[in-house]
Design brief:
Keywords: Hydrolase. It contains 10 helices and 8 strands. It is an alpha/beta fold. It has one domain: 3-Layer(aba) Sandwich (Rossmann fold). It is globular, with a radius of gyration of 18 Å.
Length: about 325
């Protein structure tokens, strides 16, 4: 367990530090002060007490409101962003990251505002229940229920139920793939596309990035092992809804954009996942953003490349949904 008097980590001494751009170097230094020990050493409760500064509120949106969604065994929160007072808009159902045990709709508020305004999508941000209190399949079931709810209520928010995309970052991206797999299993309408920022899709820990960036900022290799163990509990290790790469066939997935960070333990698995989808006939594209580390996609106002990634994501959504 972390002790306050313990020596903190200096990111500048790490080999990967020279690969970061100026924005990311400064962010790594600040992050070390906010989170002086890896999450697996802090533990669940101490990790949840960490407060990250809000650097940018995000753009104004025509309408933002919080709702509740009934799911099996409880109620979850969601936040809906309407970019305009129009009907027939596409929809993006978004799942936040946080290693399956952290995160909230508030943590991705600025990002969802930006995606709504730039993509023209009604964005539904989902606050699924978290591990370890709610291990798999609860978070996956919550996200599947939320996606079905969003499609069923799309008209209430001026959205087109035939154009519902799924997206997320990190664990949320994993849950987006899980939801697409779940929809396919139910015989429900497929999502229009998938927007995946550095998804966790594999349990082998064999790709080079797991070693090369084992102590990189925000998520270390041991953090990842720890969060997977909490999420999977005694079930799910062989279930594709938990670990997408365990699926025998993913050819049914819709057009997919995979974003990765250069300095990230998840980088190589996520890139290989995009290649796998393309090999199975899915329209899949992978974009690696240089000079940044895990978590950059949600940090509007911190990295220049975050704005570029959001713009690329919005362009992808507009292209798939045939919007000008």
């Amino acid at each position: 367990m972390w002790r306050p008097e313990a020596e903190t980590r200096d990111p500048a001494t790490r080999p990967w530090f020279t690969r970061l751009d100026d924005d990311a170097r400064e962010a790594a230094r600040r992050l070390t002060k906010i989170v002086p020990r890896p999450f697996h050493q802090l533990g669940v409760e101490a990790s949840r007490r960490v407060r990250f500064p809000v650097l940018q509120r995000g753009p104004e949106v025509f309408d933002v409101r919080d709702v509740e969604i009934e799911v099996a065994g409880g109620v979850i929160e969601a936040r809906i962003y309407r970019p305009a007072d129009e009907i027939g808009l596409p929809m993006l159902v978004y799942f936040h990251g946080g290693g399956f045990f952290l995160g909230s709709i508030g943590g991705v508020d600025a990002l969802c505002r930006g995606l709504a305004v730039r993509s023209g999508c009604v964005v539904v941000s989902v606050g699924y229940r978290l591990a370890p209190e709610h291990p798999f399949p609860v978070p996956a079931d919550d996200c599947l229920a939320a996606a079905l709810w969003a499609a069923g209520h799309a008209g209430d928010w001026g959205a087109d139920p035939a154009r519902v995309a799924l997206g997320g970052d990190s664990a949320g991206a994993t849950l987006a793939v899980s939801t697409a797999i779940g929809l396919h299993g139910l015989g429900a309408a497929a999502p229009s596309c998938l927007l995946l920022a550095y998804p966790a899709v594999d349990l082998t820990f064999s790709a080079p990035s797991w070693t090369e960036f084992a102590d990189a900022p925000l998520i270390t290799t041991e953090d990842a092992r720890w969060t997977w163990e909490m999420y999977l509990g005694e079930h799910g290790a062989d279930d594709p809804r938990a670990v997408p790469n365990r699926a025998d066939d993913l050819s049914f997935l819709p057009p997919t954009l995979v974003l990765t960070a250069e300095v990230d333990v998840l980088r190589d698995d996520a890139a290989a996942f995009a290649n796998r989808l393309a090999g199975e006939g899915v329209t899949a594209r992978h974009r690696r953003y240089p000079g940044v580390f895990h978590g950059f996609f949600t940090e509007l106002g911190l990295y220049r490349r975050t704005g570029l990634a959001v713009a690329e994501s919005a362009g992808f959504l507009r292209q798939v949904h045939r919007m000008p």
